[in-house]
Design brief:
Structural class: alpha+beta
Order of helices and strands: EHEHEE
Helix content: 10-25%
Number of helices: 2
Largest sheet: 2 strands, parallel
Number of strands: 4
Strand content: 25-35%
Shape: globular
Length: 71
């Protein structure tokens, strides 16, 4: 591909147990651009890749999540 694909996943982690969450996150590390939503950040944040950017949506406003980035 000449252009890196963009992967969008909406709350997919709520459907997986911890082992499958880790496997999916490992697989997603092979892509340059991944956007995902989750209602369970605490369950996956330790397995996010280094440099992952994390945001919260509060009252319709997108805000950087303080203190949980993987940079």
């Amino acid at each position: 591909l000449k252009v890196a694909p963009l992967i969008l996943l909406d709350d997919v982690f709520s459907e997986f147990d911890a082992a499958h969450q880790r496997q999916l996150l490992e697989f997603l590390k092979s892509f340059e651009q991944v956007f995902l939503t989750t209602a369970h950040l605490e369950e996956i944040k330790d397995n996010l890749p280094e440099g992952a950017q994390i945001y919260n949506i509060e009252n319709g406003i997108i805000l950087p999540s303080p203190g949980v980035g993987r940079e």
